What does this fold into?
Amino acid sequence: MRRGLFVVFEGIDASGKSTQARRVAELRDAHFTFEPGDTPLGVDLRRWVLDAATPMTPITEALLMLADRSHHVRTVIEPALSRGRSVVSDRYFASTLAYQGYGRGVDLARLEAATELAIGDCRPDLTVLIDTPLDVANVRRTPDVRDRFESADLDFHQRVRDGYLAIAAKWGDLWCVIDGSRSESEVADLVDERLASLPC
Ligand code: ADP
Ligand code: TYD
It folds into this structure.
């Protein structure tokens, strides 16, 4: 059986990536999933890691994200791909590099090594970065939701955005960068244009 296609959407908070990830999953009849938290274990990990009232070091934060991912890959993503089902994920390993690496300052080489342990060889066929300036994303944000990351300062979010762009530049054709400041339908057209070159 042919393996399913694995497509990931990345971006800063409120960049508009979930809107596109859900739309593409429906269009392609793919399994939609997200990180952190889309497994029974992940629900608890997500609650801990997003709770702004629980102090946590950046490395602990990274390890909780990696624990969630390791479980997610083995119980959700990999089984679906092996059955021939395509998977669209709202966030994957680059979120940890961007937020905990570039954002918090955790050593990138060590994070990359830990990522290999967490995901094995389950790499996306394509990662779509919805690149949205902070001021544009800020307008789209739900005003009173303030989890650990949403309550971080602007400099943190700027480092995350710049980090994503640096990661995208490194991965070449395996990533595509879409201007997230455009209207929802314009972003959708740009995403579909890029996805058209992938097998169904
Ligand atoms: P994220 O997953 O990156 O946090 P969402 O996809 O949930 O972002 O979008 C955040 C908000 O912005 C939602 O209310 C959504 O409807 C809206 N939105 C998404 N894409 C756009 C866009 N291109 N232009 C304007 N609003 C958008
Ligand atoms: P979520 O409400 O799912 O945000 P979004 O809709 O923007 O995806 O919250 C997930 C938060 O967790 C988000 O701020 C990014 C952060 N995060 C990390 O810091 N590292 C990671 O590895 C992942 C997967 C998410």
The first helix runs from residue 17 to 27. The longest strand covers residues 126-131. The chain has a mean pLDDT of 96.
